[in-house]
Amino acid sequence: MNIVFTAALGVGGATIIGTLFGFLFKKTSALFENVILSFAAGVMLATSVLNLIIPAVGDGNIHLTFVAIFGIFSGALCISLMDIAVNKLILCTEKKRSTLFDKKEQLHKLLLFVTAVAIHNLPEGIAAGVGFGTGNTADALTIAGSIALQNFPEGMIIIAPMLSVGIKRSKVLFIGILTGVIEIIGTFFGYYAVTISNEILPFALSFAGGTMIYVICGDMIPETQSDYHKQSSTYSLITGFCLMLVIDSILK
User: Fold this and answer.
1) Which of 106, 143, 170, 175 is the most exposed place for a label (fewest CB within 10 A)?
2) DSSP string, 145-185
3) Whole-number CA gyration radius for the chain
């Protein structure tokens, strides 16, 4: 039980620590932001494939494969619908479109990213908890370690954009802590409800992977591919992806 508690704090705490660390970089250059965001995209892409979608498929069972495909498209569709809903909400509350347009666009993308983080944190926590609940400590540590590594830059990179669009520091900190707490709750839920979560886990994992892939491809990568920083961002993404390959191999 102690190792589960430690893993839960590590997985969720990485997001919180990343959030606190992000306050040190509230004023950053475009190059720095693009490189960090691209690195996080690479980490998220590797994690979504290695630690979410592949475990959902299992040993290649055709039934689980179709469950995973359904989960991926469901996750992507969910974020897509949220994209539309958030856009309409901001348009309805916007009083002066001409002066608030830039901030509206930034806030729109930010809300999508934070929403995706919150959505995939719960099944990720469940995944780590299930590993410990079934007694497979090695696999559980692999998942927990990969998620924690990914959560740190996730927590860090959302700080500067939120501050730049005028969100108060206290609210920014609350959002960062909340996303971390969600994952801690998920870890304990997975540990205590291993039988139930084993049945829903393939869909939950692939659903989380779908939300991540949608945000990575639809928002994070396009955001970082400016003419001036395209190559730096691309290699940063590849670096993040390859680092996760190494970490995943070491933890196994």
Assistant:
1) 170
2) HHHHHHHHHHHHHTHHHHHHTT--HHHHHHHHHHHHHHHHH
3) 18
Nearest-CA neighbor of 215 among 82, 124, 87?
82
Residues 6+ apart with CB under 8 A from 98: none
Q: Mean pLDDT of successive 10-residue segments in the chain (252 residues)?
A: 73 80 70 79 83 81 90 88 69 50 59 64 68 64 70 70 70 79 80 66 81 82 76 90 84 65
- Measure the CA–CA gap between 156 and 190, rounded to whole angstroms: 26
Nearest to 55 by CA among 184, 119, 143, 158: 143
**One-letter amino acid identity for 169?**
R
Q: Is the pTM of this model over 0.85?
A: no
